[in-house]
# Entry
Amino acid sequence: MKMRRAAVAGQFYEGTKESLLRRLEACFSGIKRGADAKIVGAVAPHAGYMYSGKVAAHAYAKLPRADTFVILGPNHHLIGSAVAVSKDTWSTPLGEVAVDVEFVEALPRHIIDVDETAHRYEHSIEVQLPFLQFIFGDLKFVPICMALSDAETASDVASEIVEAAVRLRRKIVVLASSDFTHYEPDNVARSNDLYVIDAITRLDVNDFYRRIYERNVSACGVGPIGAMLFAAKALGAKSGELAKYATSGDVTGDLSAVVGYAAILISR
# Structure
């Protein structure tokens, strides 16, 4: 069995099981937990847990159990295929997480390639796994990282995901891993991010892209968010909700150059 080792344990999140569990407990502290069966998609941040973990917890606190969690993340390093899925088992300090290989093999693979090199150093998907492990224990997932962010690619990726889910009769939840504005003043980040998030919660993919380009918003997971929205709508999604928004300035106190984080839930 091939293993995708944790690339950012001890950096983005704690490197030992005990310390990581303590961090996750702190992230969920004060947040009411309860699965909402209507949720089919979500956006969660992927920064270091000390900065964005509390925001991410607001998304994970509501997720229902799924047969397969499809996690879409940006390819920050631009290594490997433009749209790449992994078949290897992944490991974190909380244990191993199996990829749903049957799902991967059911993908039409018109645009999605199997390419492990694209995932080797990428953190955007990895940092989501401990949250899923903390909530659900054992689970299966499908990791897809995207170096392309245009709407056409996002639509194609979504079509492949939905086709595989329908063919296998899998109940899936699609997660988009993304931070929002990078290194702008806090007031600018909040204004621009909430402008974009409004389009996401209305499930208006065209307006989402329009608003991203209109204000040149430096969200890193535009493609994953677009693909998640296309897939969620195909799965019957009707509405979206902003569960939590914050910036790194809320943690550091430095409002001069912040990164924006959002937990967004997409429901039938």
